[in-house]
Amino acid sequence: MPPVPTATIRTQLEVPLRFTDGYTTVARVFSFDGLVDGREHVAFGLGDRAAPLTSGESSRAPLVRPHSECLTGDVFGSERCDCGPQLREAVERIAESGGFLLYLRQEGRGIGLYAKLDAYALQDAGLDTYEANLALGHREDERCYLVAAQMLQALGVPRVELLSNNPDKARQLRKFGITVAAQVPTGVHLSSANARYLAAKAGSGAHTLDIPLSAA
User: In terms of CATH, what superfamily is 8-106+147-190?
Assistant: First the structure.
C-alpha cells in the first residue's frame, strides 16, 4: 500500500480537564496540519505525555485510544450508547499510564450527527445499530483510521498499546503502519438503555464485550 501521507503538529497547548463526576487532570492538546480528510481531529496527551514532545522521549509503547466523537453521549450524557463512559474511563486510564486519546470527528460511525439521529429512529422501530446504518444507505461502519495513524506518526508514536474493544481499530492501524503491541479492553458500561446496542456491537461488530445473555 502507498505510504501514509505525512501530517504535522499545528498547535499544542496545555488544557485542564474536569469531568462531571469531579475527576480532573491536565492534557496537552495537539492539532494537526495535513490530515487526509480535512477534519479537525485532536489528540490529548495525558500522564507523562502531557508535556511538549522532545527527541529524548521513552520508546515505551504508550496507551492510546482512538475515540470517535459522539455529541449525544460525550457531551449530553445520552445512555443510548456507551461512548461517554468509555471516554471518561479512557482519560483516567491513559493519564495513569501515559499516552494519547485521539478524538476523531467521526460521529455515528462516520455517517454524521443527523444521519445518526435518523438511525436512532430506525432503532426505535426495531433495527439494531448496524441494520439502521445499512437501511439508510450507509455501510455498517464507515470510519477510517488513516487519520489516527497520521496523528500518531506526527506525534512520534509508531507503536501503541491500543485501548479498545474494537478489532477493526487494531486491524486498520496495523494496515496504516502502526504497530499494535497489545490490545487492552475497556470496561463494559452496560445499562438497561444501551443493552441492545452493546449486544449488537459484540455480535455484528465482533467487539470484545462480555454481555450477559439476559441483557441481549
Answer: GTP cyclohydrolase II (3.40.50.10990)
